[in-house]
Design a protein that fits this description.
This protein is an alpha/beta fold. It contains 15 helices and 14 strands. Helix content is 55%, strand content 12%.
């Protein structure tokens, strides 16, 4: 592990389990205005929503609203938009989906209004005779969100909504399965182009070709660790795994109480979203740099590159840091926007760097867990362990300090059952 990188979970090699690293602070929610910070804290305290998941989803919402309307220019050869790909990683029963659902409600409400407006427009259009229709442009449905993840559907959506589209998937596994069906020539190729805001041309035999320029596509969804590992194994050479911001969801379902969110907090959030919408411009607008902010940006980028070049940095993490550079710039765009400004100040850059390091640390922890799984699979193979009982025995034999709780979670059984099998071994 490279110097200066702090992980939220540290692998205890003696006990072969992950322990919380107290050196890492919580998700830096001070990137948001104070009222939104307070909402994130209240959602955690009253409902049990993890701060990191709530905050990351809010960041996705802001990113999707802003879309192509704002660019950040670092150099003439580095101009970027704030699209984000966020994977909420957690086992079942960690409240991932409910936590995501709350922040995206304002966007879902917009989709209902867009659909209603389109229905009225297309009904009016269809009442015209054929000659009148030729003189009128056929209505297009405005859209900002989708759950449809085929390449053809996304190309059509983006051609009709040039400011960009946000994808919400309750399970990202569906996205990865779709990638497997299309292979390198379809969805995967499209997504790799979309990450950098590139151009994509869709040629179709039966219809006119569609060209989409300046693709803007933000994505958020949940995924279980074992599914993410399988996806990573199948995408080691194309850099797809490095393009995601990983958020760990560890919370269990909390005890139910009647503690609730004051409507005042919800009103504050909807006002915040309204203010972000007011920042959207019809034409693409470049963010402005305060000179001190630009100088700080250079220093922070060089800190990232120092870690990238360090011989102590694992190869996979070094590759990931190359994409974190990109996200760091995108955070520098989003943070002032969330605070009602188009000028980037030095403090925005410092907050963006801290946020970039937070996501680096969670990614590093995710990659460590991949290695952990590789070792466990090797043990299973060596011992010919295929049943839950044989796997418990194999883990206890080769990793005697691994806790019973960790063994039970790994095998997918109850702690009492794992404890019973281990006692019988004695």
């Amino acid at each position: 592990m490279s110097e200066g990188i702090i992980t939220d979970y540290v692998l205890d090699l003696d006990k072969f389990e992950y322990k919380v690293n107290q050196a890492l602070k919580d998700y830096p929610i001070n990137i948001f205005p104070e009222k939104i910070e307070n909402l994130i804290i209240r959602l955690h305290d009253a409902v049990g929503f993890e701060k990191s998941v709530t905050a990351s989803t809010m960041l996705f919402v802001v990113s999707t609203i802003i879309g192509n309307s704002k660019n950040i220019k670092i150099k003439n050869t580095w101009i970027d938009t704030p699209n984000l790909w966020i994977a909420i990683v957690g086992k079942r029963g960690t409240m991932k989906t409910p936590t995501i659902n709350f922040p995206i409600k304002p966007l879902q409400k917009d989709e209902l209004e867009y659909a209603e407006a389109y229905t009225k427009e297309i009904e009016s259009y269809n009442r015209l005779d054929s000659d009148q229709q030729k003189k009128e442009q056929k209505p297009r449905r405005k859209q900002r969100l989708t759950t449809d993840i085929t390449a053809e559907a996304l190309v059509k959506l983006l051609s009709e909504n040039p400011n960009g589209i946000g994808i919400i998937k309750d399970e990202l596994n569906g996205l990865f399965q779709e990638m497997g069906r299309y292979g390198g020539a379809g969805l995967l190729e499209f997504l790799l182009s979309a990450f950098s805001g590139g151009q994509y041309i869709k040629n179709r035999a039966t219809q006119d070709s569609i060209t989409v320029d300046n693709i803007f596509l933000s994505i958020i969804g949940t995924i279980q660790p074992q599914v993410l590992k399988a996806m990573a194994t199948n995408n080691t050479d194309n850099g797809f795994i490095d393009r995601w911001l990983y958020v760990k969801s560890e919370n269990k379902i909390p005890e139910f109480t009647f503690d609730d969110i004051d409507p005042m907090f919800i009103d504050d959030y909807y006002r915040f979203i309204r203010d972000v919408k007011n920042m959207v411009s019809k034409e693409t607008e470049l963010m402005r740099w305060n000179p001190k902010a630009l100088s700080e940006f250079k220093d922070c980028i060089n800190k990232i590159r120092h870690k990238m070049r360090s011989e102590e940095t694992p190869l996979q993490l070094s590759s990931y840091l190359a994409k974190i550079e990109t996200y760091f710039a995108r955070f520098c765009l989003l943070i002032p926007i969330m605070n009602g400004r188009i000028e980037i100040e030095r403090n925005d850059v410092l907050k963006a760097h801290k946020l970039a390091m937070y996501y680096t640390d969670t990614a590093n922890n995710t990659f460590i867990e991949f290695d952990n799984q590789e070792e466990i699979r090797a043990i299973y193979k060596r011992e010919g362990a295929t049943t839950k009982t044989s796997k418990i025995i194999a883990l206890r034999k080769h990793l005697p300090e691994m806790t019973i709780t960790a063994i039970a979670e790994e095998v997918g059984t109850y702690r009492t059952y794992a404890s019973k099998i281990i006692k019988e071994m004695k």
